[in-house]
Amino acid sequence: MTVAPSVSAAPARTFPEDFFWGASSAAYQIEGATEADGRGPSVWDSFTARGRIKDGSSARVACDHYHRYPEDIALMKQAGFSAYRFSLAWPRIIPAGRGAVNPAGLDFYDRLVDAILAAGIRPMACLFHWDLPQPLEDAGGWRNRAIADAFAEYARVAVRRLGDRVGDWFTLNEPNVVAINGHGTDDHAPGLRLGEKGVLTVLHHQNLAQGDAFRAMRAERSGLRLGTVCNLQPARAESDRPDDQAAAIRWDAVWNRVPLDGVMRGAVPDVLAPWFEGIVQPGDLDRIRFPIDLLGINYYSRMTMKHEPGRLFDAGWGDAHCQRWTGMGWPVQPDGLYDLLLEFKQLYGNPAVFIAENGAAYDDVVTPDGKVHDAERVAFLRDHVAAVGRALAEGCNVKGYLVWSLLDNFEWAEGLSKRFGIVRVDYDTLQRIPKDSYHWFAETIRAGRVV
Known about the structure:
By secondary structure, the chain is an alpha/beta fold. It has helices at residues 27-30, 43-49, 65-79, 90-93, 103-118, 134-138, 147-162, 175-183, 195-220, 242-265, 273-276, 284-288, 334-348, 375-393, 436-447, and strands at residues 20-24, 83-87, 122-128, 168-173, 225-231, 235-237, 294-298, 303-307, 315-317, 353-357, 398-403, 423-425, 432-434.
């Protein structure tokens, strides 16, 4: 195996014995079988049908995980995973979003959970990873406060069926991306441009739905570990100019603080107060605040912001002044993960967190001998795992690290063209090919330190 030397100067560090390792995935990105066994349509099916996927592909088959999950779980076990975060497909379980439950959908997740447990892996279920049932979108989706009731009902159904075996439950994945990319910039489903007020409305209604779902799950089964998953990125100004500094503060408030301050503090950021007028109703913040047990943090890079009139919240992307970039055009900034974890410890009292997603897309090449020598991804993962180790040494309460992702998969609006997996998927044959990064990750798990 060819492994690139680390760019980071951080020394290897030992992780605690109970530190958990594994990967995360999203149902829509890997399952396929979009029309099988009673599954209903989602907003991403509709978005795809409108020709909004850059490479013209779809998730109709994706990785065919719906049928090939035993093979994928075997890869997890072989690598030594101790945890796996996956999402449930809301339209597979309740096709209309609320009301009639699809037994075949729950049966699939029964089989999946049982197979994960049989492999000695901890199942961690996420209720919503972006695939909103289309009938709910037709009724206003996240723009409609009534969605909170539907989400709580869905949470009860899922926990009632799987809560005897799944102890870790997460409500939302990256509500900021759903609000901003799906309802502000229109490059994700459902593909809307609602302006600042609309974006904050969607964020607020996700927070409301989450609070109601937490209480529904707790009432259904008291011993569960409950949490949520946020995409957090330190927001830095491009320059010392006051307007750039102000833009970074506003963007940090929208991207990081609305999801965090809602659940952690029952508050909205002061800088956004003018936009929140008329959105927050009496009692809302009490509904939103909830004492979670475990927070998932997704980290990919910092955000460098500048004042840009005409963009959402007058904030645009600045020059990251970075030397390394992923295949998505994202800067490689492992020190940002270290900074984020220390900042979170200081601002929120050091609650239990885990890295729920961290990874990189690169243009992988299969060599004539059928291998994938993804040295850039190995270096990316090594440097970010080392950053987590540094944060642990500083007393940050980090419980685990999950790579994004086990498999190459349907990368939302990018389609099948961007590969994040540590296992390559040949989309013609569906063959799985472990990359060098898979083998490096397995060695790191076995060693309990960065190798």
